[in-house]
C-alpha cells in the first residue's frame, strides 16, 4: 500500500506544479507571437495567434533612453560643467523640455550624460545638451567600452523622418530614438549607404474584415489571417547587419514599424494589435498620410504560403525600396 503524503510533501508538489505550468505558459506565448512573422527557416509551430489575450490598449508610458559608451559631439546649448542630473533619463528629459510643444522649435536634439561614477570622477552627473547640424547624421566623437558617456537623440515635431521610396510612392517614417536608440542608430547608418539592393517588402496582408479603417479590431472577429501587415527586410546586399537588442516595446498600433525578432526582418502594421502585447521592438511609425501607400501594397497580387501551419500571403513580385533622407520638417505624426 502506498504511503500517504504529509502536508509538507503536498506543499512541495503544489509549488513544483505551479512552476511547471508557468514555464509552459510563457513558452506558448513566445511561440504564438513569433510565428506570425518569421520566415520558414526561423519559425516555430503554433495553431493560432488568437490565443493571446488582448491587454485593453493601455496608454504607453513615455520613454527616454540612450546608448551607453557613446559620445555625441555637436554645438552645446547647455554646458554639462554647469548642469548635473541624477540619471541619463533626467538628461534626456531636460533635452526634451527644450522642444517648444506641438508647434515650437526644438533647441536641443541630442544629449550626453556621464553616469559611471568611477570612470567619470568629478564629471559624474554632467549632462550636456546639444544641437546637431544634421540630426539624421549626428556628429560622433567616440564609442566603445572605454567611453564613459551615454548619449541619445531627441527628434521634435517634423524631425527625425526618413523615407522608404517605392514605385508606389514614398513611405515617410518618424523615428523613435528615445524608445529604441540602438534600432534608430542602425537606420541612420543605412541612410549613409549608396545602394539598397535587397531591401524589399515580400509579404502583404490586408486588414480583411477583422479591423476597421482606423485599425480598431472588430468585436468577436478573428485576429487573422490575414494579419494586417506588410513585411520585408532592411538589410542591403553586401552590408553587415548586427542583431539589435530588444528595446522599449510599445503596443503595436496602426502605422507602427517594428523588428521581427532582432531584425533585419521588419513589418509595418495596418491595425492596432493589442493581442500581441509588447513583444516587438517598435522603432518608428508611418506618417498617417502615407498609410494609403501601405494599404495599396496589400492589394497587390499575392500567393499563399504556409509558415509553420500558419497561412500567409507572399507578394508575387516583391516591392523594392530605397532609403530617402528627409532634411526639412515634414508632416504631422499623430
From TrEMBL:
<dbReference type="InterPro" id="IPR029000">
    <property type="entry name" value="Cyclophilin-like_dom_sf"/>
</dbReference>
<dbReference type="InterPro" id="IPR002130">
    <property type="entry name" value="Cyclophilin-type_PPIase_dom"/>
</dbReference>
<feature type="transmembrane region" description="Helical">
    <location>
        <begin position="12"/>
        <end position="37"/>
    </location>
</feature>
<keyword id="KW-0812">Transmembrane</keyword>
<keyword id="KW-0472">Membrane</keyword>
<keyword id="KW-1133">Transmembrane helix</keyword>
<dbReference type="GO" id="GO:0003755">
    <property type="term" value="F:peptidyl-prolyl cis-trans isomerase activity"/>
</dbReference>
<dbReference type="Pfam" id="PF00160">
    <property type="entry name" value="Pro_isomerase"/>
</dbReference>
<protein>
    <recommendedName>
        <fullName>PPIase cyclophilin-type domain-containing protein</fullName>
    </recommendedName>
</protein>
<feature type="domain" description="PPIase cyclophilin-type">
    <location>
        <begin position="164"/>
        <end position="313"/>
    </location>
</feature>
